[in-house]
Amino acid sequence: MKETIKKLQSYVPEEPLAKIKEKYGIDRVVRLSANENPYGPSPKVVAALNEFDFRQENYYPDGYAQELRTKVAQQLKVAENEIVFGVGLDEIITYLSRVFLQPGDEVIVPRPTFSEYALNAAIEGAQVVSVPVNPNTGKYDYDQILNQITKQTRLIWLCNPNNPTGQYETINELRQFIKQVPADVLVLIDEAYIQFVTAAQPASALPLLKEFDNVGIMRTFSKVYGLANFRVGFIVLSAKLAGYLQTIRLPYNLNSISQRAASIALDDQAFVDMVVAKNAAERDKWESFLQNTGLKYFPSQANFIYFYVDDPNDLADRLLQKGFQVRRELEPHGLRITIGKATDNAQIQQIIKDYLG
Ligand SMILES: Cc1ncc(COP(=O)(O)O)c(C=O)c1O
User: Fold this and answer.
1) pLDDT tens by residue, 250-288
2) 31 three-state secondary structure
3) Theoretical Cys-Cys bridge with 271: which of 42, 200, 316, 332, CB 3.0 to 4.6 Å?
4) How far apart, in whole angstroms, are the C-alpha atoms of residue 221 and residue 110?
5) What is the domain partition of the chain in residue ranges?
6) Ligand 1 neighbours (beta carbon < 6 A)
7) Neighbours of 266 (CB within 10 A)
């Protein structure tokens, strides 16, 4: 077996809500630890799936996800053969690492950022070089990233807005950086949360695909579309690189129910607009609250907020006892909370206020 696997720890999934309820003797637990959408999927998706014809389940799904592919291509103004679908971005991250990495290669990841980039690099036996974000602003330190590029560097992962800091990088910041990156190093921009950005319109780095061949843009249906359970994500990159990913993609990775759900979700822009507006209003309230507490936090452009406390485990335990599950163990003092519905946010903020005394 691969030696690298023996040294790794498996991903610790979210504790099931039923288990938490039983443990703490509470009726309601709100999961705010996985950046899911508290406003649910679009009612149009629910209606369409109620009409779904399950008598066709003896057939494999469309392995090319043609209907969904055409819609995504039209909406993003990219070519159909530049898109690769995965069972969530999780699968896309796995594919990218599998295709582009071998032992001895290096990948650069910011710190902190989404943990799966480094995990998948390690599985392939590649070295992970992590570059701390600017501790004052939470922004990427492009000079340091450029300094770390060597002949072995294959991939640079940039999550935008970054998970967990919530920091947003403008397209111009990304463009200036990518101009200095060697053409044989692939820059992967994970836009899992891009629709939540309100500071810049349009927010996406998609136009960079026309300027550079060594860029990939990643999107998911798990966040703003509220379809985490359906597991649909995709990457857009040059047709040549997309072809390599297609070679190793499982032939029927997206089932037809998920394809349908994602396809309907794309049409419901009113639902997306509602989610983005509510999230932005609640995010403002969270930032004013944190400002008043004096705790260090980063202004967020995503659907979560990240701040530092002396003992994040202690506070996370306190919140869990009261029915709110949040994300800990990201950095020694960091705590990340998904921005929930107004009444839940107000309750959490009160708990934190009482906790700080
Ligand atoms: C930055 C980032 N990328 C990718 C993912 C994985 O998303 P998916 O549900 O599409 O697998 C997540 C999930 O939280 C994430 O935060």
Assistant:
1) 999 999 999 999 999 999 999 999 999 999 999 999 999
2) strand
3) 42
4) 24
5) 3-41+270-356, 43-267
6) 35, 88-90, 114, 159, 163, 190, 192, 220, 222, 228, 233
7) 18
Q: What is the DSSP string of 92-125?
A: HHHHHHHHH--TT-EEEEEESS-THHHHHHHHTT
Task: Provide the whole-model pTM.
Answer: 0.97
The pick from 96, 117, 222 for probing ligand 1's pocket by mutation, whose C-beta has the most ligand atoms within 8 angstroms, reads: 222
Question: Residues 127, 132, 133, CA angle at the centre, nearest 5°?
Answer: 135
Q: CA–CA distance from 40 to each of 44, 45, 65 (Å)?
A: 11, 10, 24
- Kindly report the CATH class assigned to 43-267: alpha beta
Q: pLDDT digit string (tens) for 98-146? A: 999 999 999 999 999 999 999 999 999 999 999 999 999 999 999 999 9
Taking a C-beta distance cutoff of 8 angstroms, is the pair 197, 52 a contact? no
In the structure, what pLDDT confidence band is assigned to residue 330 with cuts at 50, 70 and 90? confident
Q: How many angstroms separate the first and last alpha carbons of the chain?
A: 53
Closest ligand 1 atom, CA of 87? 11
According to CATH, what is the number of the domain 3-41+270-356?
3.90.1150.10
pLDDT bin (cut points 50, 70, 90) of residue 5 is confident
* Ligand 1 nearest-atom number relative to CA 162: 1
